[in-house]
Amino acid sequence: MKKLLTALLLAPAIAMASGAALHLDKAPDVQGDNAALQSGARTFVNYCMNCHGLSYVRYNRLTQLGLSEQQIKDHLLFTADKVGQPMRIAARPAEQKTWFGATPPDLSLVARSRASGDGTGADWLYTYLRSFYQDEKRPTGWNNTIYENVGMPHVLWQLQGTQIMNGEHKLELATPGTQTPAEYDKTVADLVGFMVWAAEPEAGFRKQLGAGVLAFLVVLFGFAYKMKKNYWKDIK
């Protein structure tokens, strides 16, 4: 019985260890760079929001990235009438399921949910969006080395170009896109950065607050220690 319980407890770890190693590229950190995050928001709205929404984020949240409400209305407000509405898509879930075979997920928290021991959610997204390749066996014509048999087409293919899997089972750019590889990597980095921000818009404030609280506790400890020494100085 004891051996059985031990085996059950170790089963998940054994299963993880036996799986294929997943190599994730490190995503550039663009948090705090409003220009990069604005670029990522633009890419998301123009390429991703046809299928994926950010229902936990309202359009007026984008003012935190340095955009005015008028700029949001003029350039990013495509699926709502007011900036106070959530960033939902116009398509209905039932229609999407009919079109794609499954309803594309909301991406509000994907940058957090994809975090693992192999890397952060940002690393996963950054690698994933650069790992599509042409595969005629797939219904969409595309596959992905990070997410095998993915149902999602490569919506950024015009920017990146067409990658193929060569004889050495490595990705190779067969047809260039409108961007150079370096430019495409920057576009993806900005897009991933925006998705990281969208998963927790208050992360920057939370970290600043945490640093401030720790600094306050350090100062408070100094005063408390001095008071303690002064209080007990005559007691032996």
TrEMBL record:
Cellular location(s): Membrane
UniProt xrefs under InterPro entries: Cyt_c-like_dom_sf (IPR036909), Cyt_c1 (IPR002326)
Top-rank taxon: Bacteria
Keyword Iron (UniProt): yes
Chain positions recorded as heme c binding sites: C48, C51, H52, M165
Cofactor note: Binds 1 heme c group covalently per subunit.
Signal peptide: 1-17
Keyword Membrane found: yes
UniProt keyword annotations, A-Z: Heme, Iron, Membrane, Metal-binding, Signal, Transmembrane, Transmembrane helix
Pfam families in the record: Cytochrom_C1 (PF02167)
Protein name, entry field: Cytochrome c1
Provenance organism: Accumulibacter regalis
